[in-house]
Amino acid sequence: AGGWNAEIRVWDVTDPEYVCKGSLRGHSEFVRALVGGKGLVFSGSNDRTIRAWDLESLECVGMMAGHSLAVLCLELVGDVLLSGGYDFVIRCWHIDSRQCVGELGGHTQVVT
Question: What pTM was computed for the model?
Fold first, then answer.
């Protein structure tokens, strides 16, 4: 769960007590989007960055910057992370290299 305090809380929903496993800190502004897969969780923030977090160690293992405004949505498709935001662009990121491999422009409104 991400929030206004720029913190992400990781919950163990398989435990009947719904135990909080820990907090992920690294964004400087509030977290707007989360998506998980392949042992990672990706977070998008108002600080215009995307961070990759390892769910075992609860450590940040990478950061992606390229949006000029807040990141609003994330979707994982195979080895590609799609991000959209207030800058009207969808960016495509390779999850291993953390490099932007494409941009889908032409939108006239924010991408949610």
Answer: 0.93
